[in-house]
Write a structure and sequence with these properties.
294 residues, alpha/beta, 4-stranded mixed β-sheet, globular, binds adenosine-5'-triphosphate
């Protein structure tokens, strides 16, 4: 089982020819509400990619709460550790341009009420093959999750998004960090991904920097370096490409695949997701990933 301790947001997605500048109004061509949040997205991605997954998090007591729980449940994710907090659920306001690029505002809502792990959360984490963390929960909660996993010998995979200063007390418990190239540059101060990778490996044993359509760069302290090209496809919507990549990567690693194979599995899953609109709705099943890998 893989545990995900993270955010669940309702994504409010507007599709526009190009995103409005400050003070400008543009007419969109479509609007959708889609269950999302980096935590929930990674949970769904991992479940679709073939793992048993438990989600630890919170939704509000608004109408989005049951919809978010239902979406996780339908993807086969264990929601027994998803609590309901008074007030609104988290939301993400997403603008998708015809180019496939996106911009996002996140309002944390119930996610922001989580400040640590309960005894039941810790018990769930301790039973896992991996713990996936992102930074859409308060930092204290993320640190508590990472420490609980480390104490139980469970590998921790951190997606450092949205970017914040990463304290040593967090990174000391992280086994694999997976930033995109912008996050890697912001965290390390190095624009060149090779330089950023070296700096990341001073702080964590393994790192993957995702480079969008340019692929993904992997490094380990043990000295392995891999550049895995993206699968060439026509991108329709890159929302949650990174979360699909991380969810699939975690599944492949939990199944014992070597880094090169695991990265190929993750790149294939992400490439399938960018060919469809939406976040969790665009994530491929294990059968689709396996078929595309042939
Ligand atoms: P997002 O924030 O949109 O979820 P991200 O910025 O976290 O994405 P990216 O680096 O854009 O992550 O993409 C993650 C992975 O998805 C890449 O390493 C690549 O394997 C795959 N990918 C992204 N964009 C494309 C594309 N246009 N074509 C093929 N694969 C892609």
């Amino acid at each position: 089982m893989i545990s995900v301790f993270g955010s669940a947001n309702m994504d409010l997605v507007a599709y526009v020819p190009s995103a409005p500048k400050m003070g400008e109004t543009v007419t969109g061509r479509a609007f959708r509400t889609v269950p999302g949040g980096k935590g929930a997205n990674q949970a769904v991605a991992a479940a679709r990619a073939g793992a048993q997954v438990a989600f630890i998090g919170a939704v509000g007591d608004d109408p989005f709460g049951p919809a978010l729980r239902g979406a996780l449940f339908e993807s086969g994710v264990d929601t027994s550790r998803l609590r309901v907090e008074p007030g609104p659920s988290g939301i993400a306001h997403i603008v998708v341009e015809d180019s496939g690029g996106n911009s996002i505002i996140v309002v944390p809502g119930a996610n922001g009420t989580i400040t640590g792990c309960t005894a039941e959360d810790i018990e769930m984490i301790a039973r896992s093959r991996a713990l996936l963390l992102q930074l859409e929960l308060p930092l204290d909660a993320v640190v508590a999750g990472a420490r609980a996993a480390r104490a139980a010998g469970v590998p921790v995979v951190l997606t450092p998004a949205p970017v914040v200063e990463l304290p040593n007390e967090l990174l000391d418990s992280v086994d694999l960090i997976v930033p995109n190239e912008h996050e890697a540059a912001a965290i390390t101060g190095a624009d060149d991904p090779d330089d950023a990778l070296k700096i990341l490996l001073d702080r964590v044993p393994e790192a993957v920097i995702t480079l969008g359509s340019k692929g993904a760069l992997y490094g380990s302290r043990a000295g392995t370096r891999l550049l895995v090209p993206a699968v060439p496809v026509e991108a329709v919507d890159t929302t949650a490409a990174g979360d699909t990549f991380v969810g699939a990567l975690a599944v492949a690693r939990a199944e014992g695949r070597e880094p090169a194979q695991a990265l190929r599995f993750a790149s294939t899953a992400a490439a399938l997701s960018v060919q469809r609109e939406g976040a969790s709705t665009s994530m491929p099943s294990r059968a689709e990933i396996d078929a595309a890998l042939l």
